[in-house]
Amino acid sequence: MSEQCFQKVTPELEKELRAMFPGKVYTGSEINEDYFHDEMPIYGKGMPEAVIEAGSTEDVSKIMKLCYENNIPVTPRGAGTGLTGAAVALDGGVMIDMTKMNKIISYDEENFVVTVQPGVLLNDLAEDAQKRGLLYPPDPGEKFATLGGNVSTNAGGMRAVKYGCTRDYVRSMTVVLPNGEVTEFGATVSKTSTGYSLLNLMIGSEGTLGIITEMVLKLIPAPSETISLIIPYENLEECIATVPLFFKNHMQPQALEFMEKEIVEASERYTGKNVFPKELEGVQAGAYLLVTFDGDDMEALEDLTEKAAEVVLEAGALDVLIADTPVKKKDVWAARSSFLEAIEAETKLLDECDVVVPVNKIAEYLSFVKEAGKSYDFEVKSFGHAGDGNLHIYACANDIEEETFKEQVGKFMTEIYKKAADLGGLISGEHGIGYGKKEYLASYLGDTQMRLMSGIKKVFDPKGILNPGKVIVS
Ligand SMILES: Cc1cc2nc3c(=O)[nH]c(=O)nc-3n(C[C@H](O)[C@H](O)[C@H](O)COP(=O)(O)OP(=O)(O)OC[C@H]3O[C@@H](n4cnc5c(N)ncnc54)[C@H](O)[C@@H]3O)c2cc1C
């Protein structure tokens, strides 16, 4: 909860909302419990006093005007797949469900852009664009998140190593400010030096500055060919040591993921499919790289694959397995995409960290994390986007009390965030700060940067009603 005092949604206000949005307002027991949390419930649950399904920019503007006048907190909500407690109504108030604003409005194939509403699911845009031979490059693991949520968290994902993050694909957006005013940031142009970039301030602002109600996103021609490689290693150290070699040897993968054997096993139990080799000539695999190359020329890709195989085998890989058929590629990437669900399925208490460190520091960082984890009663599991140094570290426990878990995890996270900072890294590479990470953000960024961030928040949201208590301490 934030420290501010807000008004409640009174019966009169509820009546007014129901009259404005017939059949779209839910209160009390009408509200599905899924709205009380996101995918990381350890950061707390909160029940909104009213959930309203928005259908248009005008709807969002009307809701914001009313809430602004009445000093009611508002939480914008996409699909609720976030991992930081950012879309949880910790102060009650109104939650605006954006998922019904889910139209792909139009493509402009001359300018390579698509105009979408924020509730469109990533999966739906990816499939639709593919039919036109186009690619929307951002590829976070959760395909059923909304594009509005992706933009608001600056989601990353598997292809960020080659194509960049969501931020790199947002051209412009329509935003409803906390007082209900509607404005446009950016334009359908490919460069700008036109004043402060308010567009970029909105991207990754986790619903704290304004509500995005329409976006123009950049697309690229879809590469026609891909090859994926599964590369097993005896241990994590050797596996991670290979990562910088891809770049040093001028091989630009579309995706370059690492994973420990425990995660792979959990994922195979979860999906029921055996796709990763476990033993090679009597040596047990302890960790893996999963690499994809893309392009339009299959021969060139095969040459690249050969070159990659030479480099990694020389660096200690146990083997190189090629997934070149659609089924093999689908199975192996489906296994990768289900890592988090697989961990969740086997774990009662879960917390995670999403640090990003320079690529040549990953090995040092992960061995520090492993060593640090030995002092606690939970298990530490890791996987992540090795190609861009973005690591997902999970603390998992089944046999300890929640309070003990939280206390131990607090100490563990403090240790490992500090180490990331010492190595030149940052608190979050793609999941955001939300509620769960804001204390770490404040201690990492220090007073000057937090003062600037608070100042920006006040300019956008003088009453502090929009997603209070998230990102910064408001
Ligand atoms: C299995 C799994 C795998 C994942 N893999 C990745 C990954 O690889 N990379 C990655 O980056 N993330 C990943 N995530 C995290 C999550 O999917 C992303 O953070 C996603 O961007 C959240 O989108 P959402 O629609 O669920 O948003 P929500 O969780 O509903 O909201 C997230 C934030 O965005 C705000 N918001 C939502 N819509 C709007 C809007 N229209 N206007 C203003 N603010 C808005 C909310 O207030 C909140 O602050 C994963 C999650 C899961 C469960």
Automatic annotation (TrEMBL):
Cofactor: FAD
Record lineage: Bacteria, Bacillati, Bacillota, Clostridia, Eubacteriales
Stored PROSITE patterns: FAD_PCMH
Keywords linked to the UniProt accession: FAD, Flavoprotein, Oxidoreductase
One MF term in the entry's GO annotations: oxidoreductase activity
Name by which UniProt lists this protein: FAD-binding oxidoreductase
UniProt KW Manganese keyword: no
Keyword Flavoprotein belongs to the record: yes
Coiled-coil regions listed: none
InterPro entries from the UniProt entry: FAD-bd_oxidored_4_C, FAD-bd_PCMH, FAD-bd_PCMH-like_sf, FAD-bd_PCMH_sub1, FAD-bd_PCMH_sub2, FAD-linked_Oxase-like_C, FAD-linked_OxidoTrans_Type4, Oxid_FAD_bind_N
